[in-house]
């Protein structure tokens, strides 16, 4: 205390001076706070400016490529390749976009943003670039004719199915080529047929809105007839663009302008299926007689997989049925085809029809069994039988009124060469299997390998088999659950 008192009474201590220094410190702190606030405002303005620049840059890059393509007569598919490294289009989803909370640089899934936060992409974003920046482009309603080979796909539709599906691969290609504008629900997307796992097609049709090169989009949006041919030649070569990025077992084989009210499923006049098979010892004439009984409008609940929850009308109209030979031969056998045309089909209907026809061709059932199964008043419950395999089934064509599909000469040639190469590849594989078959034949004794005999399966007549629940029984069971 003595020391402190001595200090207070010393000549070095002046209360007036101490008060002045405290006021100076407060003024200095206030000045620094004001400077910090000013700096924060400057940074916020700079952040907003950079956000605008980033967003504009995406558009300017895309527009500049479009202008250069028009001036130099470069196709959109060339733009796809030229922009694959700058975040517009590419096999890996890159993006250069502006969102709330920070400016994002090009990034792959799981990479860091500029502000250090980790951004995880959703499943939709990984399928392609964000289509929000494309909304300023013109778009038009088009129909695409699609060919695919279904062996590796879990059906056509991606709804409730495992990947890969044909539809999911098509949408990946559409996003990668920047042909989509807006979200999926804005595209007015529809498909003609929903083929099952393993089923192929050479004539599937889908309709949706796609990006367009034509500027008079208001005229196109209200049209009810196809645009003149010369306008199609000015348009994006959808076939060529998409086939460059689609997997080798999917090909677009044509496109056409579509009326705004076209629905690929409900506007379809008829569908035609082909089912391929080896003739072997089948009685073709008996199969033809039985197949003709399908023609006309009938209740096909005994020739389908019944969906009592969603389907209440099982009457369908079969327009034509025929059995014909194909050019493909192997030794003493030949491939034939059943061609079935109808206005629409039930779930697994064609494969069930073919399964019963095979029993008739083998002599196990009489053609009259078709009449019995079509009479649902006498046969309300479907006998249990196995459907025909899915692999030989092809959705051959879908018929529409006033749709005329086009394909540029370059795109058509590319599709032809691709299919020719695939055909040669599969023939080589078939030759390998044939060589293996011949090598095994030397170990056969009178056609009986190793002396074992195969017991012939006993056929149980269809009308003597256990039956499935009827439609009425299924509906009653559903109501009891409620």
Written account of the structure:
The structure is a single chain. By secondary structure, the protein is of the alpha+beta class. 37% of the residues lie in helices and 18% in strands. The chain is built from 13 helices and 13 strands. A hairpin with an 8-residue loop joins strand 4 (190-191) and strand 5. Helix 9 packs across helix 10 (349-361). The chain is elongated, with a radius of gyration of 35 Å. Residues 1-13, 57-133 and 219-230 have low confidence and may be disordered.
List the helices and strands and how they pair.
Blueprint (H helix, E strand, L loop, with lengths): L1 H7 L6 H57 L4 H7 L15 E2 L2 E2 L19 H4 L12 E10 L17 H11 L13 E2 L8 E12 L5 H5 L7 H6 L3 H6 L6 E8 L12 E9 L5 H9 L3 E4 L15 E16 L2 E10 L6 H13 L6 H7 L18 E7 L9 H33 L2 E2 L2 E2 L21 H11 L1
Parallel strand pairs: 5-11
Antiparallel strand pairs: 1-2, 3-5, 3-6, 4-5, 7-10, 7-11, 8-9, 9-10, 12-13
Helix pairs in contact: 9-10
Helix content: 25-40%
Q: What proportion strand?
A: 15-25%
Distance between the termini: 91 Å
Low-confidence stretches: 1-13, 57-133, 219-230
Structural class: alpha+beta
Note the overall shape: elongated
Instruction: Summarize the helix and strand pattern as letters.
Output: HHHEEHEHEEHHHEEHEEEHHEHEEH
| Biggest β-sheet description | 9 strands, mixed
Mean pLDDT: 79
Count the beta strands: 13
In DSSP terms, counting alpha (H) and pi (I) runs of 4 or more, how many helices?
13
Whole-angstrom Rg: 35 Å
């Amino acid at each position: 205390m003595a020391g402190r008192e001595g200090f207070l009474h010393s000549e070095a201590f002046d209360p007036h001076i101490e008060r002045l220094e405290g006021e100076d410190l407060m003024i200095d702190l206030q000045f620094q706070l004001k400077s910090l606030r000013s700096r924060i405002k400057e940074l916020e303005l700079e952040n907003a400016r950079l956000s605008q620049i980033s967003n504009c840059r995406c558009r300017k890059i895309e527009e500049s490529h479009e202008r250069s393509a028009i001036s130099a007569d470069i196709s959109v598919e060339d733009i796809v390749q030229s922009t694959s490294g700058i975040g517009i289009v590419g096999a890996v989803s890159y993006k250069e976009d502006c969102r709330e909370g920070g400016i994002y640089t090009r990034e792959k899934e799981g990479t860091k943003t500029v502000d250090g936060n980790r951004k995880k992409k959703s499943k939709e974003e990984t399928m392609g670039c964000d289509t929000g920046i494309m909304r300023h482009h013109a778009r038009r309603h088009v129909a695409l004719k699609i060919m695919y080979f279904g062996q590796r796909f879990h059906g056509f539709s991606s709804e409730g199915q495992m990947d890969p599906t044909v539809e999911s691969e098509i949408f990946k290609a559409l996003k990668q080529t920047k042909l989509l504008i807006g979200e999926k629900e804005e595209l007015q997307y529809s498909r003609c047929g929903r083929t099952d796992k393993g089923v192929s097609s050479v004539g599937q049709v889908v309709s949706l809105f796609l990006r367009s090169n034509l500027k008079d989009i208001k005229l196109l949006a209200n049209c009810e007839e196809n645009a003149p041919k010369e306008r199609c030649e000015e348009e994006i070569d959808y076939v060529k663009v998409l086939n460059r990025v689609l997997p080798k077992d999917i090909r677009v084989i044509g496109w056409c302008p579509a009326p705004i009210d076209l629905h690929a499923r409900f506007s379809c006049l008829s569908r035609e299926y082909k089912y391929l098979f080896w003739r072997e010892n089948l009685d073709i004439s008996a199969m033809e007689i039985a197949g003709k009984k399908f023609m006309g409008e009938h209740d096909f609940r005994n020739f389908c997989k019944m969906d009592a929850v969603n389907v209440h009308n099982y009457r369908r109209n079969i327009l034509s049925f025929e059995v014909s030979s194909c050019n493909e031969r192997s030794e003493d056998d030949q491939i034939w085809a059943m061609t079935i045309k109808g206005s629409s089909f039930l779930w697994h209907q064609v494969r069930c029809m073919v399964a019963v026809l095979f029993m008739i061709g083998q002599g196990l059932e009489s053609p009259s069994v078709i009449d019995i199964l079509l009479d649902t008043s006498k046969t309300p419950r479907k006998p249990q039988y196995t459907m025909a395999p899915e692999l030989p089934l092809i959705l051959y064509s879908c018929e529409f009124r006033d749709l005329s599909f086009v394909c540029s000469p370059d795109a058509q040639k590319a599709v032809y060469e691709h299919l020719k190469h695939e055909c040669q590849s599969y023939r080589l594989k078939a030759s390998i299997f044939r060589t293996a078959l011949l090598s095994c034949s030397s170990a056969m004794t009178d056609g009986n390998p190793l002396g074992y005999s195969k017991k012939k399966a006993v056929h149980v007549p269809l009308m003597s088999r256990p039956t499935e629940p009827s439609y009425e029984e299924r509906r009653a069971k559903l109501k009891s659950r409620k």
